[in-house]
Amino acid sequence: MIATEIAVAVERNVVPVVFLNVLMQQLGLPVPAVPTLLLAGSLALGPLPLGQVLVAAVLASVLADAAWYGAGRAFGYRVLSGLCTLSINPASCVSQTEARFVRWGLPSLVVAKFVPGFSTVAPPVAGALRMPIAGFLLAAAIGALLWAGLALGTGWLVRGAVPGLIAELDRHGGFAAAAVGAALGSWLAWKLWQRRRFRRLGALPHVTAAKLRAALATAQPPLLLDLRGASMIAQTGPIVGAVVAEHDRLEHAVRDWPKHRAVVTMCACPQDAGAIEAARRLIAQGYLDARPLKGGYEAWMHEAALAGSATGSTPAINAQQRAGQGSA
């Protein structure tokens, strides 16, 4: 009887249930909303209730997106870095998603709801990049309308099969719960395996910021690839002499660099995830000396601050001068 009781509760409070469920999911909580939307669509008694549910879903989605947009606009890359830190798989660095967002622009917000993970990252990226609020809200609303409308419409089309499905769930509730638990357990195990695999691959030799600074001053400096996202580069400024690179276009960034020369990859990701991934890809392509920068951009700036204290000049200028020497 549990499935029947849940269906009755949803039917009686369908609008607030859908609103809260969608709001929580779009805020980043692990609460799936599509099953609720499918059930709500199947239980709707006519076009008017279905329209009310759709409005509630779109409103909740846009409100959550607006909150993330505001966080990105106020706190910039710190929000994106926090999202990356909370990821079960740190290799899925936010900067990769950000690069795709920058390339596609507003249309990416329309399809964001259909891409797992992207729907949470896209709004703060839009805020950090100072996308006009009117265009952002319009694109977010269109995306939410398509996403929620498709789920509700699908539920409406299969509404005749729902009573039988609910009855089956009541008869085999224990088996259904076990199946759901097994599916969730398998998903979590897969994610944890990915995390463990990344840590194993992360055993790649790194280069410290101090050694990188010294290498950039030699006659044959390494190529420094800056894999930070566009929003962070816009906030902190580019590193003079470094080549800004995207994960999806890594080969383009090194196309003219000899494979026997050193390459250093730098990101602003937890555990240097993006830099490690990029270095491994370069090694697989035949580059003999590709290493990630240990500690990433934070370590680079810390080294610049130490050098600035020693010489009496500003850290930012020192960092740019050293990188500029490397590009000579």
Describe this protein's structure:
The chain is elongated. The chain has two domains: 185 residues, no CATH class; 118 residues, Oxidized Rhodanese, domain 1 (3-Layer(aba) Sandwich), CATH 3.40.250. With 328 residues, it is mainly alpha-helical.
Distance between the termini: 74 Å
Average pLDDT for all residues: 78
Q: Give a count of the beta strands, DSSP E runs of length 2 or more.
A: 4
Strand order of the largest sheet: 2-1-3-4
Indicate the structural class: mainly alpha
The total tally of domains equals 2
Uncertain runs: 313-328
Largest sheet properties? 4 strands, parallel
Helix content: 55-70%
- What's the Cα radius of gyration? 24 Å
What's this entry about, in short?
The chain is mainly α. The protein has 17 helices and four strands. The chain has a four-stranded parallel β-sheet, covered by helices on one side.
Keywords:
2 domains, 68% helix, 328 residues, single chain, Oxidized Rhodanese, domain 1, mainly alpha, 17 helices, four-stranded parallel beta sheet
Q: Mind sketching the topology for me?
A:
Layout: H1 2-12, H2 14-26, H3 34-43, H4 47-75, H5 77-86, H6 94-104, H7 106-111, H8 118-128, H9 133-157, H10 162-171, H11 173-201, H12 209-216, E1 223-226, H13 230-236, E2 243-244, H14 250-253, E3 262-266, H15 273-284, E4 289-292, H16 296-311, H17 315-326
Parallel strand pairs: 1-2, 1-3, 3-4
Helix pairs in contact: 1-10, 2-3, 2-4, 3-9, 4-8, 4-9, 5-8, 6-8, 16-17
